[in-house]
Design goal:
mainly beta; extended; three-stranded mixed β-sheet; two-stranded antiparallel ribbon
Length: 80
Amino acid sequence: MALQGKITATRGLSSAGISSKTIVARNMQLTAAQSLSSLADVDTTARTDGSIILWDDTTSTFKVRPDVQNINLKIIGGSF
């Protein structure tokens, strides 16, 4: 079940879902000088051209890797 809601300018909360659900909103501003490597939970030390981002549950960080070595990875391309 998807929760639908609206946050008003007065920070009031109205919801079309179950009343025990909570909507949390956070305002973030990005600047042109920000980069992926500046994030605290992203390790970009192994990045090369063509790298991908993988979640590492052991270190609770995202790792930028040039290869995929994870037995839990499943790539599902759909049905054709």
